């Protein structure tokens, strides 16, 4: 789950596993696999970084590399 900001300044959480596309139109539009979409203040690069950081946090203890 990542936190993003609505255009009116309200923060909310999105399930990053459901993100299908991120578009700049010039607002940033996050479209989910369900067809629902959100217009947010963050740019696409910020959202991608949030998803990467979230996934790193979730998976950091599940993947063990062999020596």
Automatic annotation (TrEMBL):
It comes from the Bacteria. This is Flagellar protein FlbD. Keywords: Cell projection, Cilium, Flagellum.
């Amino acid at each position: 789950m990542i936190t993003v900001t609505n255009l009116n300044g309200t923060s909310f959480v999105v399930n990053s596993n459901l993100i299908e596309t991120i578009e700049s139109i010039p607002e940033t539009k996050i479209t989910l696999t369900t067809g629902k979409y959100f217009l947010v203040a963050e740019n696409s690069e910020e959202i991608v970084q949030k998803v990467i950081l979230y996934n790193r946090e979730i998976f950091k203890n599940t993947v063990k590399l062999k020596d």
